[in-house]
Amino acid sequence: MRVIVHGVGAIGGVIAGGLALSGQEVVGIARGAQLEALRSGGLTLRGPGWVEHTRFDCVADPSDIALTPEDVVILTVKGQDTAAALGQLRAAGLSDQPLFCAQNGVANERAALRLFPNVHGMTVMSPSQFTVPGEVAIFAGPRMGIFDLGRYPGGADAADEALAGALNRGNFAAFVATDVMASKYGKLLLNLRNICEAALGDGDLTDRLAEAARAEARQVLQAAGIGWQDVGLADPRRKEFMQMAPVEGVGRAGTSTAQSLARGAGSIETDYLNGEIALIGRLNGIEAPVNGYLAALGARMLREGIAPGAVSPGEVAAVLGL
Ligand SMILES: NC(=O)C1=CN([C@@H]2O[C@H](COP(=O)(O)OP(=O)(O)OC[C@H]3O[C@@H](n4cnc5c(N)ncnc54)[C@H](OP(=O)(O)O)[C@@H]3O)[C@@H](O)[C@H]2O)C=CC1
Ligand SMILES: CC(C)(CO)C(=O)C(=O)O
């Protein structure tokens, strides 16, 4: 098995780095300064109380790789970049190799299944950050992440077992799940907080706003007949495998959404997180005003260049009556 990681940023870096450090053959797909840095100097991983350095092959496009039936692809781009990445993979000749969507949100797998037959979901619990080109930080230990892996839309097969085995050898805690989308919907509920924290920073209003978004989302999912599994702090695997911890010399820029805003990435994932709840609500004739507002707020922050934490608490509290 050769593992191709498409999108070596925070999560792609941690996954590719952990696998490479364990001796697994890895090829990364990256772009810009990150590609240059990975090619010239390799990847540095910084964790709580440790630093590791590793090297693996990196290319700019899947078409630079001579794909074989033994390849497995892990997609680690943000949801808004999935369509372009899938198009690249198709142009490169990917066919029935397993394709794992190691991303937040629940829309990536469906988009992938339109083009490819062998699609798998992968829930990612791994608080990570792209710091500078050629370096990523992981704010948790003792394992670098907890993953649920399974075939989309359901079931599990040998590819899930094989990748879970490789990830476990790479200091992750990986679990094969026959209903991986239940786990991914559970993770979606957690990620509804991303834009709240990106807008307001941490605090009581953020907590209340996130809870309002989650309460609304639970109603929407229930009405749409969609089940979920709790993968939050109550999940006993977190205590055993992965607790949050600071990384010396690296300030945490918040969730992946705040990270995109902080580094001026030009796009954020909110339409695939809170926007997904608004979409499911609209498809089922249910109002989802809190998540609809939060998706629009994310778009406004991007449009107006509002920095993380700089949205007026009074405005949010007034609009949502909190
Ligand atoms: N960060 C975290 O703590 C967590 C993130 N996640 C999820 O993981 C997924 C990835 O997030 P994260 O790692 O934070 O995001 P990052 O932006 O750090 O990483 C994504 C990387 O993919 C690159 N990329 C995008 N499209 C392409 C392409 N076509 N070819 C090559 N490279 C490409 C981006 O480049 P560029 O910078 O140029 O856009 C970037 O380097 C998201 O769904 C996120 O929600 C899940 C759990 C935790
Ligand atoms: C782990 C968590 C909830 C926060 O880092 C995340 O998924 C994200 O940043 O998108």
From TrEMBL:
SUPFAM superfamilies registered for this protein in UniProt: 6-phosphogluconate dehydrogenase C-terminal domain-like, NAD(P)-binding Rossmann-fold domains
Q: Residue ranges of the Ketopantoate reductase N-terminal domain?
A: 4-140
Instruction: State the protein's name.
Output: 2-dehydropantoate 2-reductase
Record organism: Pseudodonghicola flavimaris
Q: Does the keyword Isomerase apply?
A: no
What residue stretches are annotated with the Ketopantoate reductase C-terminal domain?
206-297
- Pathway in which the depicted protein is active: Cofactor biosynthesis; (R)-pantothenate biosynthesis; (R)-pantoate from 3-methyl-2-oxobutanoate: step 2/2
Enzyme's top EC category: oxidoreductase
Pfam families recorded: ApbA, ApbA_C
Name the catalysed reactions: (R)-pantoate + NADP(+) = 2-dehydropantoate + NADPH + H(+)
Organism's domain of life? Bacteria
Q: What InterPro entries does this protein's entry cite?
A: 6-PGluconate_DH-like_C_sf (IPR008927), 6PGD_dom2 (IPR013328), KPA_reductase (IPR013752), KPR_N (IPR013332), NAD(P)-bd_dom_sf (IPR036291)
Give EC number(s), comma-separated: 1.1.1.169
Keyword tags? Pantothenate biosynthesis
